[in-house]
Amino acid sequence: MPGTSRPSDRLPESLRPEPGRIRTIAHRGDSSSAPENTIPAFDAAVAAGSDLIEIDVRIASDGVPVIMHDRSALRTTGLDAEVALTSSTTLGIADAGSWFAAGFAGARVPTFDEVAEWGAAHPDVGWLVEFKGSWTAGQMAGPVATLRHHGMAGRTILQGFETETVEAARDVAPDLPRALLVHRPEHLHGLQDRLEELGAAGCNPIGQLPIEMPGLATQLREAGYSVYPWTLDEPDEWGAAGVAGVDGVITNRPGPFRTWHNLRWNPRPVELTA
């Protein structure tokens, strides 16, 4: 009905669903071109024309939020230590680039504040911020304050797998849009009730769910939620997701995805010249 509010209306206007458009969401930055969750990966994501950058946030032992996907720092830094048991200072001096390529030696694990400062200097890109594990409202307050301080609140979506984490985001920042991540078919039971209770703007499923369950994206979209599946890196996956009715694709290959989107999914009309 005209004038009826939809969950996706909670998104900033620049991030709301648009017919015929699938937004490009760089997974951990452009992680096919640079080491994931580092400033070089974010630079590459902007160069690739990404609409949003997806990042992972964990809490170091000194209470400082840092950008790291895994519980352990081993895979991306060579430091055999749990993030939660390691200080942000120790993580910040580790080499987070050499594992990817020698040319990235010296890339660092950034703090959330450093990323927000970088984001403030790149106002045209949105953010999909995943809080790893279970977060309390008290823990969530710091990152939310950082987003506000750097002027990023109006282009950021907060998300998590754990209901209590999304609840904490709701309680601390009811004005900021939230999304729930789901990755198993059993998570779909009662999903819309959970989304409504959380006041979510979107639901972001593992990529196989909207492809293997073609009605899922349509069901969510008809209920008014945005849908960003993850992590889709091949043209056949992009096409299947597009047909399923998603609003964005979280991908490690934002550059190739944008090329595919422009040429194959939403081709531009050929302009006739004299």
From TrEMBL:
InterPro entries named in the record: GP_PDE_dom, PLC-like_Pdiesterase_TIM-brl
Name of the featured protein: Glycerophosphodiester phosphodiesterase family protein
Region (Disordered) residue spans: 1-36
PANTHER family: GLYCEROPHOSPHODIESTER PHOSPHODIESTERASE (PTHR46211:SF14), GLYCEROPHOSPHORYL DIESTER PHOSPHODIESTERASE (PTHR46211)
UniProt domain GP-PDE: residue ranges: 22-261
TM region positions: none
Cross-referenced Gene3D superfamilies: Phosphatidylinositol (PI) phosphodiesterase (3.20.20.190)
Ranges annotated as biased composition (Basic and acidic residues): 7-21
Domain of life: Bacteria
